[in-house]
Write a structure and sequence with these properties.
heterodimer, A: Rossmann fold, 2 domains, five-stranded parallel sheet, 12 helices, 15 strands, globular, disordered N terminus, B: about 325 residues, mainly beta, Methylamine Dehydrogenase, Chain H, four-stranded antiparallel sheet, about 50% strand
Chain lengths: ~400, ~325
């Protein structure tokens, strides 16, 4: 009703209100390619297949509710690919249809290739890959990251351990490449926040821990003393069985136990309860970190179009990387993108499965510009300069 | 132990006669499903009233005999009779009512339905839903101009003020403001409307005749990170001279000259300050402090915080009923 009125007003007095008079149809692509993670021991709570896609859909609805007051309408074209090459074909096809804005939930290797493929024809939002290399070395000027990097997550944990003075760490690292990356990232955080890794052991057991965790793990975690156990098990293979099975009675954190996350269902402050409810209403499940990152990507596009009345990818990118941006991500702070590597600055919650434990950055960890840059890779720590 | 204490407390309530003279403040406790009643003479909590789930916005009927309560998680607006302190009725409210505003005709209640992106208008006498107007994502702030001409809804995720004509219930104007607009307050002379943007960190002053922004206020408190300056509640004095702005997790209330827009002072209150209310003669200002679970009392003339009063968990809204 109201948009008909606005449209009529715009037709009569098109010269009066540039913002209201500008009508636009904004198309956004969503491309997902999630390789099979292989079998895991802890398979009780599987990741939803549509993680990411439903987050993008929710943001699309949010954008359209706003857009109807401005004659902006948003459409989403979603593709769930079966392989990296399928994902790349989908990108080519959608770009040929004129789509310039994409949310990608794909592994880092595929993301690199798609960034090269898109070149200056499209702006890509990385909602799936946390790999540090994408923020430190292999940055593409057409990629913005809405998912937190491993560096941000492990710095969040490092700040917490340091603030609690749990400084002696027993680190257990799983066998996958992602586990190694996460552990390397934590080792970096341990230096930044003055933690001491007193044991650094790879996980190499191959038995079924559901039957033997209580026998194997106490022996595996024997050491003279430590304050906390940190687990690097990104896909959730063995890590769920570490809590309560350690040699010493110590808390378990990392990828299991108390976990640093981009998003989790227990986040409810700062209006987040409303976002969680809207999401559950749409998807009939909890919102994951990938959903949240995809949601943020589509919302960032909406914010740029609302504020600038421009829809081309270059204009959207320019606005998002400017100091004009105030993105509301329900984390109690305005969010913005780092101009050197395109990473979204954001607070990192620390959660256990049923409650929020804390929010980082923790007060007292200082930074000359913004304390959000105490998490992840600050300009001097990154080789990237995506804004010249 | 807890149960026995609760029983004892209830026994006391039911036999306590309601004091007749003092002016009373009512505070909604979002996570305790209760209202705290504060005696404005002694500045002490004199009663706690059990209400619906997640009470947030509260307001008084024009004759100050009833209190309307947004019981957000019960999807209803409850009516509390203040003489007997009992819930006597409820109103259809739409889903998840958060804030609302009463038209000067004492009948039309404008309710922001946060989950549904709708403003519901209910006739309090007939309990009829007169209109449901579609607004932006997460409508929160709700205000009706003192002359009754405009109802304004602020939608948080859409970052707009929607100006609803109170005769047609249709939106006539949308004004984009800073991120996450939380609250709207009209000046008594109908000339300006003040809207707070929580994530933007700003307050936007709108000229009501021209429906355009005339001033954006920024706040800066020494020793407080700029991102923590998050304006929420606004209260204006009836003479149009002063504005008070609650700054959320900055834990301060800004005192603003409402004519020159100069920021005169920042007053330290409890943690995450939400909403504000002046007493009848405007000598005192109450603030609800969500995280510290208390109410700060500000002496307006001295610009000093004179007391904090412990209330329930997550105090949200506050109104003061003048002494009868």
């Amino acid at each position: 009703m109201s948009n008909i009125r606005l449209l009529a007003a715009a037709l009569c007095f098109g010269w009066v209100l540039p913002a209201a008079g500008f009508s636009a149809d904004i198309r956004i692509g969503y491309i997902q390619w999630v390789p099979d993670q292989g079998p895991v021991l802890s398979n009780i709570l599987p990741e939803p297949d549509d993680a990411g896609q439903r987050g993008a859909e929710l943001a699309l609805a949010d954008n359209n509710t706003t857009g109807r007051f401005l004659n902006h309408s948003y459409r989403l074209e979603s593709v769930v690919a079966d392989s990296a090459s399928d994902a790349q074909e989908a990108l080519a096809g959608l770009m040929d249809q004129g789509i310039e804005l994409f949310i990608l939930n794909v592994p880092a290797t595929t993301l690199r290739e798609m960034a090269t493929q898109a070149n200056d024809r499209a702006l890509l939002f990385n909602a799936g890959a946390s790999d540090n290399a994408l923020r430190v070395r292999d940055c593409a000027p057409n990629v913005l990251h809405t998912i937190a990097s491993y560096g941000m997550l492990t710095d969040a944990l490092g700040q917490w351990l340091s603030a609690r003075r749990w400084q002696k760490i027993f680190l257990i690292t799983g066998p996958t490449e992602q586990d190694q990356q996460w552990a390397d990232s934590f080792r970096r955080a341990s230096k930044r926040f003055n933690l001491k890794i007193i044991a650094d052991k790879p996980w190499s057991f191959e038995g079924d821990l559901r039957r033997t965790a209580s026998r194997e793990l106490p022996l595996f975690t024997q050491a003279s003393d430590y304050d906390a156990v940190v687990v690097a098990d990104v896909r959730g293979d063995f890590g769920e069985y570490v809590p309560f099975n350690t040699w010493l009675p110590r808390p378990v954190t990392g990828t299991q136990g108390m976990t640093p996350v981009t998003w989790h269902r227990v986040v409810e402050a700062w209006g987040a309860a409303q976002l969680q409810r809207r999401f559950t209403g749409l998807a009939h499940r909890d919102m994951t970190d990938i959903d949240y990152a995809a949601w943020l990507g589509v919302r960032a596009v909406g914010e740029a179009v609302t504020r600038t009345a421009k829809v081309r990818s270059k204009a959207v990118r320019t606005y998002l990387l400017s100091d004009q941006l105030q993105l509301d991500g329900f984390k109690g702070r305005q969010l913005s993108f780092r101009t050197w590597n395109g990473q979204l600055r954001q607070p990192i919650p620390l959660v256990h499965p049923r409650a929020l434990v804390g929010q980082t950055p923790i007060e007292g960890f200082l930074h000359p510009k913004t304390d959000l840059d105490t998490l992840g890779f600050d300009a001097p720590e990154s080789q990237c300069r995506i804004v010249k | 132990m807890g149960l026995i204490r609760t029983l004892a407390l209830c026994a006391v309530c039911s036999f306590t006669a309601v004091p007749a003279m003092a002016s009373l403040a009512y505070v909604s406790n979002e996570k305790d499903n209760s209202l705290s009643v504060i005696d404005m003479d002694t500045l002490e909590v004199v009663d706690t009233i059990a209400v619906g789930q997640r009470p947030r916005g509260i307001l008084l009927s024009k004759d100050n005999s009833k209190l309307y309560i947004c019981a957000s998680d019960d999807d209803t607006v409850q009516i509390l009779d203040l003489a007997t302190r009992t819930i006597i009725d409820d109103l259809p409210s739409g889903e998840d009512p958060e804030q609302f505003a009463l038209h000067p005709n004492d009948r039309h209640l404008y309710i922001a339905n946060e989950d549904d992106a709708i403003v519901t208008v209910v006739d309090i006498q007939t309990k009829e839903v007169l209109a449901q107007t579609e607004v932006g994502v997460e409508p929160e702030g709700m205000a009706v101009s003192p002359d009754g001409r405009w109802a304004v809804s602020s939608s948080e995720t859409t970052s707009m003020l929607h100006w609803i004509n109170t005769e047609t219930f249709k939106i006539e104007k949308n004004i984009v403001v800073g991120q996450r607009p939380r609250h709207v307050e009209f000046s008594d002379d109908n000339k300006t409307a003040w809207a707070s943007a929580e994530i933007g960190g700003t307050v936007h002053v709108i000229d009501v005749d021209r429906l355009s922004e005339i001033k954006t206020l920024d706040f800066s408190i020494r020793g407080v990170h700029q991102d923590k300056v998050q304006p929420v509640g606004i209260e204006l004095t009836s003479d149009g001279k002063l504005a008070f702005v609650a700054l959320g997790p900055a834990n301060h209330v800004a005192v603003v000259d409402a004519q020159s827009y100069e920021i005169l002072d920042y007053l330290l209150v409890g943690s995450r300050v939400w909403h504000l209310e002046l007493n009848e003669d405007e000598s005192q200002l109450l603030t609800t402090n969500g995280v510290s679970g208390d109410v700060s009392v500000i002496d307006v003339a001295d610009r000093k915080v004179i007391k904090s009063i412990k209330v329930g968990r997550y105090p949200w809204g506050v109104v003061i009923a003048p002494s009868p």
